[in-house]
Write a structure and sequence with these properties.
270 residues; alpha/beta; Rossmann fold; seven-stranded mixed beta sheet; 40% helix; binds S-adenosylmethionine
């Protein structure tokens, strides 16, 4: 399997866990019915489906992604959903959007713009450029999780050396961290910069979909052995997080986990 295939599989498998939380975040934006928006870094189009539902049959969502392969999958998924009239896709780079000024009523970007961290101010300005005055720009990213109930110290240590987190924060300035996004919204001239965190809960008995999603997350977060992880912690990780282990944590009859998505948004000045 190529890296892209793995990535696509992970996006599909993790969707049942993320979807209710992303839906809640979309509700908080109060996107106007019939409005037209951009999903920047749309991946395989799963959030685009939720955005299209939110704006209704008179609205439209353009999904943009840098990967042609992701877009192929996105088109397939959207065609099957019956929402293909309302969603179109375009290949492109979020840092140089192939759209005129003031094209959209809003922009949404989940787990793409600002994640991993980078030069965010120019990106936000570019997103604002394609939105009409008064429209909104929202960026979201996974911001925390507790998925190993009863093992807070182990989980904290695994997070401190987390294969998914380290590349985003190592050597980066604190002000470039995603949860400092309010500062970039202010600097980019947005009105009413706002932050809100949405939590997702899952608990036993787990459906097959949620079980698969959690296994995928365990692998994405901690599955690559890191030199900083002690042998004891690695053995504990395997004992608790490998489905074939007799102590697999998802088999606990009282298993409970939660995770958060943080969303930052603001209005383009009129
Ligand atoms: C973690 S995925 C998230 C996909 C989708 N937003 C979601 O929430 O399911 C990140 C996506 O951003 C896309 N991406 C990364 N850099 C990009 C860029 N500079 N311009 C456009 N898309 C980009 C990747 O190809 C990938 O599809």
């Amino acid at each position: 399997m190529t890296d892209t295939d793995t990535y696509i599989r992970q996006l599909k498998e993790s969707n049942p866990l993320r979807e209710p939380t992303l839906r809640e975040a979309i509700r908080a934006l109060h996107l106007p019915p019939g409005s037209r928006g951009l999903d920047a870094g749309c991946g395989i189009g799963l959030p685009a489906l939720l955005l299209a539902e939110a704006v209704g049959p008179a609205g439209h969502v353009t999904g943009l992604d840098i990967s042609a392969e992701f877009l192929l999958h996105a088109k397939e998924i959207v065609n099957k959903s019956g929402l293909s009239e309302q969603i179109s896709f375009q290949e492109g780079d979020v840092s140089k959007l192939p759209f005129d000024d003031d094209t959209f009523d809003w922009v949404w970007s989940s787990d793409c713009v600002g994640y991993p961290t980078g030069e965010l101010l120019p990106l936000l300005k570019e997103l604002a450029r394609v939105v009409k005055p008064g429209g909104s720009v929202a960026i979201l990213a996974w911001s925390s999780q507790q998925m190993l109930p009863g093992y807070p110290l182990l989980e904290a240590r695994l997070n401190a050396t987390c294969s998914a987190l380290i590349p985003c924060v190592k050597g980066k300035k604190p002000e470039s961290n995603f949860v400092r996004a309010l500062g970039w919204f202010r600097q980019a001239g947005f009105e009413e910069p706002t932050a809100q965190t949405f939590a997702g809960d899952v608990y036993a008995p787990l459906s097959e979909d949620i079980r698969t999603a959690l296994i995928t997350f365990f692998k994405m977060l901690w599955g690559e052995p890191q030199p900083e992880v002690s042998q004891e912690d690695w053995a504990e990780y395997q004992r608790l997080c490998q489905p074939e282990s007799p102590d697999f944590i998802l088999n606990l009859p009282d298993y409970y986990a939660f995770f958060t998505y943080s969303m930052f948004w603001g209005r383009v000045p009129g």
